[in-house]
Amino acid sequence: MVAVPSDTALASGTDEAPRSLAQRIWTPIRRNPTIFAGALLLTILVSLAILAPWISPDPLKQNTINRLRPPSEKFWFGTDQFGRDNFARTLHGARVSLIVGITVAAISAVIGLALGILCGYFRRVDAIVMRIMDGIMAIPSILLAIALITLTRPGLGIVIVAIVIPEVPRVVRVVRSVVLSIRAQPYIESAIAGGTKGFKLLVRHILPNTLAPLIVQATFICAAGMLIEAGLSFLGAGVPLEIPSWGNIIAQGRSFFLRAPWCIFIPGAFLALTVLAVNLLGDGLRDRLDPRLARRM
Amino acid sequence: MSILSVRDLATHFHTRDGVTRAVDGVSFDLAAGETLGIVGESGCGKSVTALSIMRLIPPETARITPGSVVEFEGRELTRLSEEQMREIRGKSISMIFQEPMTSLNPVLTVGTQIAENVWRHTGIDKRQARERAKEMLDLVGIADSQRRLDEYPHQLSGGMRQRVMIAIALSCDPRVLIADEPTTALDVTIQAQILDLMLELKEKLGTAIIMITHDLGVVAETTQRVVVMYAGRKVEEAPVGELFARPLHPYTHGLMRAIPRLDIDAETAGRRPRLKEIPGMVPRLDKPIMGCAFAPRCDFATERCRVEAPPLEDHGKGHLAACWEVARVQTVAA
Amino acid sequence: MSDAPSLEVRDLVKHFPIHSGLLQRRTGAVKAVDGVSFAIRRGETLGLVGESGCGKSTVGKTVLKLIEPTAGRILLDGEDVTTLSPGRMWHHRRRIQTVFQDPYSSMNPRLKVGTIVGEPLENFGIASGKEKDELVAKLLQRVGMRPDAMNRFTHEFSGGQRQRLGIAKALAVNPDVIVADEPVSALDVSVQAQVLNLMIDLQDEYKLAYLFISHDLAVMRHISHRIAVMYLGRIVELTDKRTLFSLPMHPYTEALLSAAPVPDPSKKKARRVIVQGDVPSPAKPPPGCHFHTRCPYALPKCKVEVPPLIEVAPGHHVACLRRPVGASPESLTTTA
């Protein structure tokens, strides 16, 4: 806005009066409600997943007397058709979902970052890699996963690989465009004129700028990864049945849907909540880390 | 006879970090057919003054404080409804901006954009409006106007776009044209063309112009009277010749010595002279300013300047200045 | 120290290819710089003036070897650096530094001032660690900043202060030449004066050669010793400052001078020489003399013949067909 001289506006914060503890905690929350809501929800879910072995019984222990029991004081989330405790299974399922989500996000981010930087730097590589990426993006991820799993043994690893492959191009695109725009910045020319060479230029001036969009993209991939994993497991092409995952639980509960709807609804609700938490966090971070949007905050 | 009269205009921006007093009590009059310059550096409030007159300030953050008066042909603009204001904008008071590309709609042809302004305000039919659009393009000196009507803004050069903006602004024969840095984005030779065009049209149509600029050269060549702003306040006002011959406020005085001169060979014995520096920088507007806003940068400042804000005083020949030390400034300037 | 000019440029050409169509075939070229020659001595400022698109910034970037020239030669202290690879060029970067137009975008917003200003010191192994900090502190003081600025981020400073930081960075490696591309045009008038004064002081102190690129003739008149006027990739006039302002010989120079507004209402010009029309696109410059489409004095031959840059008087070079050697300036216009 023309009105506020940028010098003065930006200089604020240097000589502000010290604020009270309550204010220091409350102000950032008030300014970024989505980040905090997402982070809080996610923290709870991650803690539950980590603590699952200690706070819940064995998710595989069958108890044929207590088949398909509705939620009660003893079985908070009811039991399934083998009398296994759904509370335990849901919490352990959270571990699978989060492991898949986080691993997928991490691997795609690392591969995508490397390829993106290569593309942003070398025009020849760019032309080839980007065409390959376009090709990969044209493959439906569920079909690719089913194909891969039919070719090999089902397992957590192969599920992760199957989800990573189609997600990588999304990261590459984001990183590449950031690298291209940063390379056009005058401060890059200024650094080159000041004698800054290749690797240092990359690490000091270019890489830090790619991190914010990369983190944001990674949260969205994490959410997508969890959804795809659940979908694959539901279709029987994902995590082996002996490992409780939300997709598996829902798939098994499907036949008893009318008698025992809790078998589907509870893990379904957890899946939705986790994805929501990750997306909230991602949305909040995007608004916060995008300088064009952040300036208005 | 003044057609636009601004009294104690104050526009404050309310942000999380507090209140920024972008314009803080500015008054001036604009006579019919006159060219008034408003000059100052970035952040002095000159653009916000213009936007406040037009009521184009962002409603989420900016407030024109109660007590501000903008009277145009007997109507109090700050009290009008948004509906009534829309009637005035583009018809009675028009505005052109620094960057013509962002003020033109990229997906509409030039002809449509001019014609739209005409039929919205006058209600003549679209064919006549298009006729008028062609007339306007001829008026602003765009050759081959019939063909240009159907072109899009990106097909035009920067200078031509500014001509189109002027054509839109003048299409309903406004009484007042507010030009906010109209030539700052243009090259020198194009700037000269646009300034000449504006002055020529002013003579032809009798439109009064408020010329907002940071460029003392543009002020000297185009305006009749000048308001100098600093930190949201008017610090000096005078007829243009008087202002340049006898600047009374230390800020104006300093500015005139700070600019390198195109027209004067200032070298002595091959040594390049030092320009007069104004030390420091403009004050922050998000805190109330004690005394004179310019005092911390002023060579003439005394203890009094730091605590008591100087009132605008008339020093004859329509020359107003807000400074306690006018007498001392004058002896140095002379 | 040799007698060679600090920076010399001979017949510099930079064409940017235009690719179009589905296959991105090369369909033409923007002749941004089309045969430019000049030399700058130690302690001298050469002003490069012209309107947007005339190629003045491209000249600056090319002599810095931030972009590769298409043809011509660039000599730093007499040494040819034209065809050096980026790796070999690195050894010469200490001699030629730059100050950018936009102090906001020419510094990495994520880094502290100490890191930015000290980066060249580190790069060339001049100093590191504590020693570097001490040098940076000295540099900051030299450009009129407090040494504790080192630990702050660039966004905490105003435009003028940032431009001082940019100058400190350029000075860090003790260069011979500084290319300053519109260093004051983003600044407010009162701050402009501070930066111009600083640049003049530093030049006198370190005998720096400046290639000062600007569109602002008043700034040029203040800081330059000699001025080259560019139009669509070519120098049309090159002479010392006093001559340029008193006896301009090229019609374009004359037009530029008369178009610039003068801050003195008593000198309101009766009728200035206003050139009509816009600057043609550098992708399709007019044949012959590029200026003939806007020139009030154009002859038929101006449309076909490219005027060479001729020394019409000692040190005064003009590229105009109406300007034979030894002609007096009055023969061009009735009033000088």
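Residues 1-17, 292-297 of chain A have pLDDT under 50 and may be disordered.
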